[in-house]
């Protein structure tokens, strides 16, 4: 209650003054009138003294009242100053406090927030003042939680506590604990306001989780180290380590792969993580070669850098595109890969996959690295043991598997055949007249020759094939999982061709030829010994038939090989006999639907076998060296047809013609093309030259010179089958590339196949980024076309529009369209 001013005392004093004046004047008159003369002086003296006493008493009362008022005013001034000081101290502390501090009035509206509240919410402080949680737009569940506790603190006058989660300004979920303190009001009664002090416990909670995670990983590391001591071989070790990591550390999947030295592919040797892990590894390949897209992921980079590589955002990393479809489907969000070393060299990698992006902290990575180091230590131990086993299973001269190892692998292949079916082949190879080399130059040169032969045999076989030295000058080749006898014949032809070049040994050139026998499973046997014996028999037939050749064990197989030879022979005269013809497939602008070009496709109409697909005779033409001649005929015929379309709806449209590697190797290619154009009065824009991406990868000096000649001549290039190979994309800047053609293998699965969707859309964006047009081939459905249109693909061709047609038929088709 504020002090009362002394106006009442002043009024009394004034009244007293008037009364005193009246008393003095009136009393004197009264005394003069009523008192005896002799008493008059005495009475006047007493009257004066009484007045003085009354005046003194009144003055005393007034001074006391004034002093009390001044004291009350001073006390209130001190109290207000103290209150203002406390408020300033509170706000000063709150402004710099690490906690989130806010004050609410009785209506649960914000009256104060410190800067930490603004930072956490990502909105200015002014937005809060005078508004409730609901008015600020928070989630209804969070609003209900806060308002319930605020009402209890306000109405009951007791502190309340709550915990909650909320997304911060960065979008990350954070964990908070709040204490609500009532302010003002009487004890135990309703409060005037509520002070909320909120602490961000996210880091504390995450720290606790990390401690728990590290404890689990330490336990897994201990279990793995115990397994390292007990493991009998590397594969038992690999499987145990992978299983322990997934069972005890919270990882979704772990696998260990080893580098295949010849191909640089990383072959999975052990994995854990259930069916998902198997599905992932079946769909995804990894390479240690940095030139391949499959070598740009975490495993490939770890192998190249010989250091741990972590992809915290595996699904968002552009380098991880080849694996993102499978990873997204199977729930793998982050990957860490550690190289594995044995004998001082990197031989493979340990890759682990987590379901969340923040799994691989520095501590976790160090533990995984420690585990990878322990595995490497065990591998060194196994290396010594494996070396002993290797010497027992391999030929000491060539390093190839010996006969025992070969028979073991043949038994494995036969087991797989019995389970899954299919075919496999055994090739028995004998070097003709090898004994003469030993006699003339000695066994040292003979051994060097065997080593060179072994390398050439490895160069013409697949990774899954097995080449072994049977003994002496004999070799065995195992070809599992082949589709037909022709596949085995092709390998035999490659072997004959590979050994045809002289061997430069002992300062001279040595020539050896092979005699090869081929047996097939199941046609020629289903047991290992039987297949080897029958191949040996067929080898002697080849040797007796003239050497430097191959022979199948059965006559029907020989007949099929003869059919291929017949095709090669017939192809030589097909052009002269007029059996070659061109079909033309339109290329359509997706946006307008207009025909903007055609592609010339060669066909062979055999007099006895009818129309032969290029997929059957083009490989024969390439292997027999006839492809360049056929390519010249295609160029000339395409120019003739283009000139014939001058008066049709196809006038002025470019014709795309495929070029082979043999044509690109010729220095006069550009001059020859210009001669064809000049002969029919066509500009250089009438032709577009298609070549596969792989031709740029093998960009030799002759090829580079030819491409530069084409560039100077104004001829444009179309990169065919784009995305199926991997090359230095610098050629897109160096040469006049007009279009990139997306291979039909990426179009076939659209729009359902996730990987095809990612690859196709990425290729389109990349091409447009380079200001190139994109054409998709193999379009067969409206759904595929709709996807390509949606993602901005420029052109398309395929059966959806038209099959390849003869020149006149295509002109009529275009006119009707």
Provide the CATH superfamily of the largest domain: EAL domain
**Average pLDDT rating:** 84
Shape assignment: elongated
Number of domains: 5
SSE-based structural type: alpha+beta
Percent strand: 15-25%
Protein name: Diguanylate cyclase/phosphodiesterase with PAS/PAC and GAF sensor(S)
Keywords: Membrane, Transmembrane, Transmembrane helix
Domain EAL: 564-817
Domain PAC: 160-213
Which properties best describe this structure?
Beta-Lactamase; 5 domains; 5-stranded antiparallel sheet; 50% helix
Structure description:
Keywords: Membrane, Transmembrane, Transmembrane helix. This is Diguanylate cyclase/phosphodiesterase with PAS/PAC and GAF sensor(S). The chain folds into five domains: 83 residues; 104 residues, Beta-Lactamase; 187 residues, GAF domain (Beta-Lactamase, 2-Layer Sandwich), CATH 3.30.450.40; 151 residues, Reverse transcriptase/Diguanylate cyclase domain (Alpha-Beta Plaits, 2-Layer Sandwich); 244 residues, TIM Barrel (Alpha-Beta Barrel), CATH 3.20.20.450. It is built from 27 helices and 26 strands. The strands form five sheets. It has an eight-stranded mixed β-barrel. Strands 2-1-5-4-3 form a five-stranded antiparallel β-sheet, sandwiched between helices. It has a five-stranded antiparallel β-sheet with strand order 7-6-10-9-8, with helices on both faces. A hairpin with a 5-residue loop joins β1 and β2. The longest helix is centred in the first third of the chain and has 57 residues. The mean pLDDT is 84.
